[in-house]
Design a protein that fits this description.
By secondary structure, the protein is an alpha/beta fold. It has 2 domains: 6-248, Rossmann fold, CATH 3.40.50; 259-489, 3-Layer(aba) Sandwich (Rossmann fold). The chain is built from 17 helices and 22 strands. Helix 3 (59-69) packs across helix 9 and helix 11 crosses helix 12 (282-301). The longest helix is centred in the middle third of the chain and has 20 residues, at 196-215. One of its GO terms (molecular function) is ATP binding. In the C-terminal section; belongs to the UPRTase family. One of its GO terms (cellular component) is chloroplast. InterPro entries: P-loop_NTPase, PRK/URK, PRTase-like, PRTase_dom, Uridine_kinase-like.
Length: 490
């Protein structure tokens, strides 16, 4: 089943129903997601789709069409055929008995080395294979430079799990066997200098059995299956559109599909300029921070589940709309998170809001001091509130507490105004199924673990405590006391 979100529809200018129909008619979606993004720390975030399918199924045609439509981006094609092993004298003497469609016919180690090099941001020399001599050309190579998109194409490109793990999207081109045979005959006689009888003999002896044994089983790994290959223009258009969307995202959104940055506009950039300016007055800071928080909350609410609902309008007509999730609560991480509560209450009338206080206790890291949560929080979706995600330590501990209370990880939406990459890594690696919604991702943390460029101490600026003179000891400011049973109260 293919699920089309309103976000997908808004990006295309089409309704969700129309977009869903196009996907259903054009391609088959397999698995829980049509994008698998596996990128380790420090690796480039260029897209690496893989295209597999039977011999002469139209894989290269599909790749060429994708490259043509992505003309405004740097796209390169790495063909598995370039990595055939050169035949030994013994194998050459019995070339009619050699199976070129077997996984052992390819030098997978060199293919992996080339892919790793490209992902490190370095150009590579791709070998050239002579299909008439069945040897690699020792003096001819194809230089492939770093690109935004690296397409991996080949009949067995999904066979090795190490290669599969490097792909962001896995596409299987599905074409009828008789069409593939006709194309194979034409290609091998015209481009590779073989006669028809030789092609047919090889097809029956090696190609067809290898397809059944090695190629077809890899279809189960595909995220997208394209019927009819290059003739399926709608499917290719949708794939290109998806790649364009991913290329336009922040690098961390390409790595973590559960990170959402609200669309940047001049209004949002203007408000960020004001709240980041150290000369902005407290009154203006609060006003524009509240506006931004409201936008983040609204965006976060859009990720909650909903059901279809019909109502009768004052004109007596039937309107088909949606009913939002009612089992919802907010949880603010004290104290900065409390600044986001008013916006949440304005959007969700009567919503229950819990609180978590986490206090830095010397060199011992983070220590949970206080929590007050709805008793039935395990049955609710939770909007976790904290305007700044820096190291992620407090967030991780707060999320761990929610999970311990029985809240499913997928029911947590973490809302903040700005996020540091270090914090996003810390949270998403630990909790890959929650969602993070933010208005901007900043550059990094400095040596003092403060977000840069950042906006300073958000809580102090919002509540005006930076103007109160000397710092007030934490225990005094919050009146923390330890109860006889060993817990804390605030």
């Amino acid at each position: 089943m293919c699920f089309i979100s309103s976000h997908d529809a808004s990006e295309t200018g089409k309704s969700a129903d129309v977009l869903a129909a196009e996907w259903a008619n054009a391609i088959e979606i397999v698995g829980p997601s049509n994008v698998v993004c596996i990128v380790a720390d420090g690796e480039p975030t260029n897209r690496a789709p893989g295209v597999a399918g039977g011999t002469a199924s139209g894989k290269t045609t599909v790749c060429d069409m994708i490259i043509q439509q992505l003309h405004d981006h740097r796209v390169v094609l790495v063909n598995q055929d370039s990595f055939y092993r050169g035949l030994t004298p013994d194998e050459l003497a019995h070339v009619q008995e050699y199976n070129f469609d077997h996984p052992d016919a390819f030098d997978t180690e060199q293919l992996l080395e080339c892919i790793y090099t490209l992902r490190r941001g370095e150009s590579v020399q791709i070998p050239t294979y002579d299909f008439k001599r069945h040897q690699r050309c020792t003096d001819t190579f194809r230089k492939v430079n770093v690109a935004d998109v690296v397409i991996l194409e080949g009949i067995l490109i999904f066979h090795d799990p190490r290669v599969r793990a490097l792909m962001n999207m896995k596409i299987f081109v599905d074409t009828d066997a008789d069409v593939r045979l006709a194309r194979r005959i034409r290609r091998d006689t015209v481009e590779r200098g073989r006669d028809v009888n030789n092609v047919l003999e090889q097809y029956g002896k090696f190609v067809k059995p290898s397809f059944d044994d090695f190629v077809l089983p890899t279809k189960k790994y595909a995220d997208v299956i394209i019927p009819r290959g290059g003739d399926n223009h709608v499917a290719i258009d949708l794939i290109v559109q998806h790649i364009r969307t991913k290329l336009g995202q922040h690098d961390l959104c390409k790595i973590y599909s559960n990170v959402y940055v609200i669309q940047s506009t001049y209004q949002i950039r203007g408000m960020h300029t004001l709240i980041r300016d150290q000369e902005t007055t407290k009154h203006d800071f609060v006003f524009y921070a509240d506006r931004l928080i409201r936008l983040v909350v609204e965006h976060g609410l859009g990720h909650l589940p909903f059901t279809e609902k019909q109502v009768i309008t004052p004109t007596g007509s039937v309107y088909t709309g949606v009913d939002f999730c009612k089992q919802l609560c907010g949880v603010s991480i004290i104290r900065s998170g409390e600044s986001m509560e008013n916006a949440l209450r304005a959007c969700c009338k009567g919503i229950k809001i819990g609180k978590i206080l986490i206090h830095r206790d010397g060199d011992n890291g983070k220590q949970l001091i206080y929590e007050k949560l709805p008793r039935d929080i395990a049955n609710r979706h939770v909007l976790l509130l904290d305007p700044v995600l820096a190291t992620g330590n407090s967030a991780v501990q707060a999320i761990e507490l929610l999970v311990q209370k029985g809240v499913p990880e997928s029911h947590i939406i973490f809302l903040n105004l700005i996020s540091a990459p270090e914090g996003i890594h810390a949270v998403c690696k630990r909790f890959p199924f929650l969602k993070i919604v933010t208005s901007e991702i900043d550059a990094a943390l400095n040596e003092e673990y403060r977000v840069v460029p950042g906006m300073g101490e958000f809580g102090d600026r919002y509540f005006g405590t930076d103007e109160d003179g000397p710092d007030v000891p934490f225990d005094t400011a919050f009146q923390i006391s330890k109860t006889p049973d060993g817990t804390f109260s605030v």
